[in-house]
Write the structure tokens for this entry.
Amino acid sequence: MDNIVFLIFRRMRAPLLALLVTYAIAMAGLVAIPGQDAAGNPVRLSFFDAFYFVSYTATTIGYGEIPYALTGAQRIWVTFCVYATVIVWLYSIGSLIALLQDKTLQRAVQERRFAMRVRQINEPFYLVCGYGQTGSGLVRALTERGQRAVVLDNNAERVNLLKIENLREYVPALRADVRRPDNLLLAGLRLPNCRGVLALTSDNDVNLRVALAAKLMQPGAKVVCRADSHEIEANMASFGTDHIYDPFDTFALYFATALQAPCLTLLADWLGELRGSALHDPVQPPAHGLWVICGYGRFGKALYGHLKEQDIELVVVEARPERTGKPDCPLVHGPGTEAVTLEQAEIHRAVGLIAGTDNDANNLSIVMTAKALNPGLFTVLRENHLMNRELFDAVDADIIMHPSLIVANRIRVLLGTPLLTDFVHDARFEDDAWACELIARIAALVHDKVPDVWQVRIDAEDAYALMRRRKDEPLPRIEDLLRDPRDRGCRLRAVVLLRRRENGRTLLPDPKDRLREGDELLLCGRSTAQSSMRWTLQNVHALTYVLHGASPPRGIVWAWLLRRQRRRAAAGAKPADAAEVDDTGPVDCEESR
């Protein structure tokens, strides 16, 4: 605000001084020149009358000569004042219009309005630096989950695009250089409800500077960065960046896992999908045979490294090996878009092809040419720009890899359900049969839609009813939380995937295990199961029914009825709620509601 006021007074200083001097001279002349009243007696105008007269004549309104008719000398002076003040007013109004069109003032007003809107956010929010393909996808995913975001981007077109996006939550956005720490502070970096900073620009150096500034100015904030250089990743990790995502290494690990453990890959895909998506069949690339990698850049090298560890036969096709380097496998010099090049790579006996250059047109051409030579190929296609989505869908590749979407999906899962990231990491150490069995259990619960995934912490916020229990009463077992609050004999259509407590994490914990305060549970299942469990954890009556089979009456009237019922029971009548409570574990009941 101080900058705006200073700029206004600095630019309007000369016009305002001109107005003050012109008015002062005009008023002084009217006071000094003698006039006459109606009787012809000499009289002088007061300063108030002079100011009033000059005020309306300067704006060419003209209410007449008051309080008395002017003399000839006064009229000559007034004529001079009218022209002088009109000229000064035109000069002042022109200066004001020029000021309102000034880019510096407009920028200061935008920053002021942006800062006010950020401070008005009462919920936790994330500061997103970069609204490109990764940032835009992540912001939409966050807002659809009800989470708030603030965006900084140096591209005015992207910021304007955000303003017309149909998002569920309002997202304050500003065109600003994210490398400047003052812009990060303007976006609320030091506000207590800023949960984290997401550096998602396409420039590794910019992301590095954002991460460094965030860690220095707000050490408690979570910092998540995108990087596709191992040197930059090491630099980020050296000062404590919380999460670093390399899209090429991430996909390479995903693809290598899909070769050896398709069920583990399908499990991670199902749990990480957006709510309401349809279940899809597993994609199983051939684990034996020749694979042709077209493009030995960052993406090709990442895939080559993971596939080489699995002793898969590889051939690399690269147009500029002098720049990218040469792998320790057969290398074919060429673009891969021509049949001759692919034939040199023995495409006829290959089982799979990876089109991984940084040019979308070349990747499409590679896949089309390769399929014409070998229709049975399993194809992996790299998509660099989302605007080419229709073309890539028409090619019908088995796997389409988009670097920006990979990073956006990983961060969306991390921010939405952090325990899911831990679960996927720990599940990689299990065998594929374990994952196949778990997939069968989940599919039986949810049928044709991906499961809802949620997490619960046993504390006063997520489990209010549990924290209101009697001090001498132990916490319930895990299986008790899976009872239906409408019929405790039925099990909710959900499964506990992970339990985290201070001494570590446990995959698929035993339902008989008792909960502890501070435990965190990751669950998946139907959306109805999630809402029912939330109701049990928050409502004391529902929890009492789930644990004991009946909810004790509360309130004056219900307490009186309970005392009356007990007196009748003492007289020999057995109350209805004194029946034996079936404390066996819940059973599966097909939901009809």
User: Anything to note?
Assistant: The two ends are 57 Å apart (CA to CA). Residues 361 and 388 are 9 Å apart (CA to CA). The longest helix spans residues 72-100.
